[in-house]
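User: Run a structure prediction on this.
Assistant: Running it now.
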Amino acid sequence: MKPDPPVDRPCPVCERAAAEEVLNKGSLRLVRCCECSMVYANPVEPELASGRFYDRLGVPFYLSPDKLESDYAPVRFERELRLFRKYCQAGAVLDVGCSTGAFLFQLKSRFPDSYSVTGADVTGAALDHAESRGIEVIRQSVLDYDFAERRFDAVTFWAVIEHLSEPGRFLRLTARILKPGGHCFILVPNLKSLAVRLLGGKYRYVMPDHVNYFTAETLKRFAAREAAFGLVEIGSSHFNPLVILKDFRGGAERVADEERARLLKRTTAYKQSPLLKPARWAYTAAERALGSMGLADNLFMVLRKRR
């Protein structure tokens, strides 16, 4: 059977079609919008556009022992939890792209009387694990789900928006299903990070799975598409020097899932080791300095639905 052709797409921020090529890395072709400067993949493989790609990753990656151990470690979502608790102390939470449910599990375990949690994803095996941990799950794209009159106090997109071929549709849905005064939390890779500046296309997170590449400026333009939202906070966080060191010698189109899971387990162990406490102080200082300059690995954004 002849494979489906790649899917052409307009700019995910301004929806214009005029763009110029900026990078080729294997099958990944990145372009920059001539109107708003957003960098995005075009075209994209049909499996990525449909979500079938991530369902196929379910058992070998999301359910690998190294990945599960790391995801459910207490330190795994410490930054996200700190940001989340700053703006949402209780209520109904929807985590879009929840994978194995680790963030929601931490939220529910640490604050059992404060939140009701729901996770949504298209990866069946990962959702099986989330459900086994007591997480209510939605087993389809939220774009196709009938929420009826159900509304949430918070909707989270932790490392998800970069994977979506039509992210604007998810933002519109979020504006509809949030309660007035509710918050939307977004975390995406930072195209202006120190890692990207040093490594360029060799950076492992410049990969076919990621179809949107935001800077702080384009992320704000993306959020401004929805008049229902007001910007509360935007910043830069996370830093993994081990990735930079490894990728200097790398350059693969896509780092093997087994290697990604092993490195995640390794860095998680470093964060928890009492012997490395002095090194963690230095690491935290470096991360804060990079964050203050907008050079950390990720961008985070908090939006509030207007009342």
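The chain has a mean pLDDT of 91.
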